[in-house]
Design a protein that fits this description.
NADP binding; RibD_C; alpha/beta; Dihydrofolate Reductase, subunit A; riboflavin biosynthesis; 214 residues; RibDG_C; 5-amino-6-(5-phosphoribosylamino)uracil reductase activity; two-stranded antiparallel ribbon; 7 helices
Length: 214
């Protein structure tokens, strides 16, 4: 399973990133149900099986950074690292965890910060337009300040920090925003789970991380 994921993704990502000027190459990846749902409002929804999780973790190793919105941090408390691999990856070689958090709502005891404090994870970057950053910085986060809350400006800011390949994993409003601004997306990977969810959020719905962050 691990070897299959590695071999498949290496064929896609073996070429150097295209020259995209001042923005990173973006891979947008998410899972959805047969009826097109990617989440329930405010609830964790598991749609990925072990095979797709193996692919996701291998995919993470091929990118400089992994980005999610603050809603995903609040709901899932993710680690944003590569763990499900046939060989372990050192902290130094892990992708950079990145959180979009306009109003700095990131919990100071979330796994991203505690992993960094304990030496088991990279220092998380928090992209924000807020100036009230002292507590979050003291907890260990690095603040990436953006004046204008738009994906264009965020991509330019991350490129300036050395991010050349970026993996975007969610949540729903971040996914929706990238699908609307699809000129920023170079690869789209969608896992379709053989299940029906019913009421929920669709990837093609309305969402903008500047005021609906997840």
């Amino acid at each position: 399973m691990f070897e299959a994921a590695r071999d498949f993704l290496n064929t896609v990502y073996q070429a150097p990133p295209p020259n995209v000027s001042d923005k990173p190459l973006v891979t947008l990846t998410y899972a959805q149900s047969l009826d097109g749902k990617i989440s329930r409002q405010g609830e964790q929804l598991l749609l990925s099986g072990k095979e797709s999780m193996a692919m996701t973790h291998r995919l993470r190793t091929l990118h400089d950074g992994i980005m999610v919105g603050i809603g995903t941090v609040l709901t899932d408390n993710p680690q944003l690292n590569a763990r499900l691999l046939d060989e372990p990856v050192s902290v130094e070689k892990q992708p950079q965890p990145i959180v979009l958090d306009t109003r700095l709502r990131i919990p100071l005891n979330c796994k991203l910060l505690t992993n960094y404090q304990q030496g088991t994870g990279k220092q998380p970057w928090v992209v924000t337009s807020s100036t009230d950053t002292k507590a979050v910085e003291k907890a260990g986060a690095r603040i990436i300040s953006v004046e204008t809350i738009s994906l264009e400006h965020v991509m330019q800011a991350l490129y300036a920090q050395g991010i050349r390949r970026l993996m975007v994993e969610g949540g729903s409003h971040v996914i929706q925003s990238f699908l609307r601004e699809h000129h920023l997306v170079h690869h789209l990977i969608v896992t379709i789970a053989p299940t029906l969810v019913g009421p929920g959020v669709m990837a093609t719905g309305d969402g903008y991380w500047g005021n609906k962050e997840d």
